[in-house]
Every structure is written in structure tokens, then in C-alpha cells.
Design goal:
This protein is of the alpha+beta class. It has 6 helices and 13 strands. The strands form 2 sheets. Strands 5, 6, 7, 8, 9, 10, 11, 12 and 13 form a 9-stranded antiparallel sheet that branches. The protein has a 4-stranded parallel sheet with strand order 2-1-3-4, with helices on one face.
């Protein structure tokens, strides 16, 4: 059930007042909320138990509100409560936006945390940053991790300008083979000239040449298209990929990216049907996927 601003006013002015729940996080509640509301954040996994702790009667009138359309925060919260048996759950879908547009008062006990403007050079924290790799053939796949050995990211006016990432190829680890000798054999093979020739090329490098922001993006999806040069096994090749660049605060940048590249363009021909005939079960996919997680600190 949904109600309008006028209907909410009427219910709040009645003798049997409903429980009014602000479903957004505490910092949002502190910045702006409706008088008489309690704050139970619906984004928390404990949302339903928290409501149940406060309201034991499934027949209690509960009105939920959030920021307002197009956000579905209150509708989602109402669905969660209805699913566990609350019978009189009411969705004030217009939320704070509709309330303000009607000229009605908002209680404020603080300010929204300001999104920091990223500016300057940031150095990759190699201890908390990681690369996960996946390699496949037609019949199976292997996955594992590698570490960064260094790198910097430069931002101006909140926009990524350039960057350089160094990858420690000697750190290649396999995560899916638990048997020791098989794990060691795979790592040895990946180190060999069949794949990454690690003894002669212990470091790979990604240089960010251009970073084009995607317009109209939201948190949780890529906000940049990165054009880079990947140096691997002594070969330099262009690689383009989407990435998420965001700020934890003014001194910390975090980035995520999924990169797919053709290993054969870097001299790794083993098992590639582009170069060998009658491979059968020895075929190995040309494409390798890397998932990058980067934390960088201001320098």
C-alpha cells in the first residue's frame, strides 16, 4: 500500500500514530528526516530482525519512507517486512523529496558527509591491492592471484589523468589446485617460456595513457574507459578496459577493473589453436582475464 503526502499528514495527526521508519543510513537520518521517525536502515542485513525487535505485533501500522522516487528504498523495505508477515506495511514512496516539495518541515541534526575532491598523486598499497587471474581451456579453468610491486595514480580536479602499475610476475599463485605437486607443476608451467617467461621478465607493467569518464554513471558500475599499454614478456600492446575509480576519503583512492587480453599477442603461444594444429585436449584459450583491486594512498 502506498500513501500520499496528505494521507501521511493525516495519519501522523491521528490518535493511533503509526510507526514511522526512516530506511536510509544513520548519516542520512542525521542530515534530514521526518519528525517522529525512527531510523532502521534497510540496507543492513539485520533490517528485518531490527524491526522485529522493535515491533512484535504483526498488525502494527508501519510507514516506511526514504529519499523518494526514483529510488526504490522504501518499496524494497516494505516488501521485506510484508514477506515475514507484517500485515499493515505502508510505503510513503514520495519520501523526503515529496515532503519537501509540499513545503513541509524537515528535521536536521547534521550535514551529509561531503564527497572528497580527489587531487594529487597516489601510491599503490601493494599489501592491500591484488590481482586475480583466470585462465581457461575448453574443458576446465584455473584461477589464482598475483601481487603489485608498485605503482602510482594521478588525479586532477577529481579526474583520473594518468597512472602506472607494476605487477610482480614472480608472485603468481594458483588457488584451485589443493594438491601440492599439481599446484607446483602449474606454477612452474606458468613461469616457463610457454606462458610468461618469468625468469627473464619478472615484472609486467600497465601504463594508463588516457582515462575517459563515462557520463551519467552511478556507484557500482565502471565510470572510466581506460586506454593503456601493457608490457608483458618484453612486448608492448594496447589494452582497453572499463574501470571503477572512487574515493574512500581525500587520502585514499580505490579502483576496480576487469581486464581481458590475448596472451598470444605477448608471445605466449602454448596451446593456442591459432598456432598449432590437432591440439585436442591440449588447447588453451588465448584470452586471459584479470580482476584488479587497487588501494592507493596520497603521497
Amino acid at each position: 500500500m502506498m500513501i500520499s503526502v496528505q494521507e501521511l499528514q493525516d495519519r501522523l495527526a491521528g490518535k493511533l500514530k503509526p510507526l514511522l521508519i526512516h530506511v536510509l543510513p544513520p548519516e542520512h537520518f542525521a542530515a534530514r528526516h521526518l519528525e517522529g521517525a525512527v531510523n532502521i536502515c534497510s540496507y543492513e542485513t539485520a533490517f528485518v530482525p531490527n524491526v522485529q525487535q522493535l515491533v512484535s505485533d504483526p498488525g502494527q501500522d508501519i510507514i516506511l519512507y526514504g529519499e523518494g522516487e526514483p529510488s526504490i528504498d522504501s518499496a524494497d523495505a516494505a516488501g521485506k517486512l510484508a514477506a515475514v508477515g507484517y500485515q499493515n506495511v505502508i510505503d510513503f514512496r514520495g519520501g523526503l523529496r515529496a515532503w519537501e516539495e509540499a513545503g513541509l518541515p524537515i528535521v536536521s541534526e547534521g550535514k551529509f558527509p561531503e564527497q572528497p575532491m580527489l587531487e594529487g598523486r597516489f601510491e599503490v598499497d601493494c599489501d592491500s591491492s591484488l590481482i586475480r587471474w583466470t585462465g581457461r581451456n575448453l574443458f576446465s579453468d584455473h584461477e589464482g592471484a598475483m601481487k603489485f610491486s608498485g605503482g602510482t595514480i594521478l588525479l586532477r580536479d577529481g579526474v583520473l589523468v594518468e597512472g602506472e602499475l607494476m605487477i610482480d610476475m614472480t608472485s603468481i599463485a594458483c588457488g584451485d589446485l589443493s594438491e601440492g605437486s599439481m599446484n607446483a607443476a602449474l606454477i612452474q608451467h606458468l613461469h616457463s617460456v610457454d606462458f610468461f617467461d618469468v625468469e627473464r621478465h619478472p615484472t609486467a607493467k600497465v601504463v594508463i595513457n588516457t582515462a575517459i569518464p563515462f557520463p551519467g554513471t552511478h556507484l557500482g558500475v565502471p565510470n572510466y574507459e581506460i586506454s593503456s599499454t601493457l608490457t608483458l614478456r618484453g612486448f608492448e600492446r594496447p589494452v582497453v578496459f572499463p574501470a571503477v575509480i572512487a574515493a574512500a576519503d581525500a587520502d585514499h583512492v580505490t579502483a576496480q577493473a576487469q581486464v581481458e587480453f590475448d596472451r598470444t599477442k605477448f608471445g605466449s603461444h602454448y596451446g593456442s589453436a591459432r598456432f598449432f594444429a590437432y591440439l585436442g585436449q591440449h588447447v588453451v584459450n588465448d584470452l586471459i582475464q584479470l580482476r584488479l583491486k587497487i588501494h592507493a594512498l596520497r603521497v
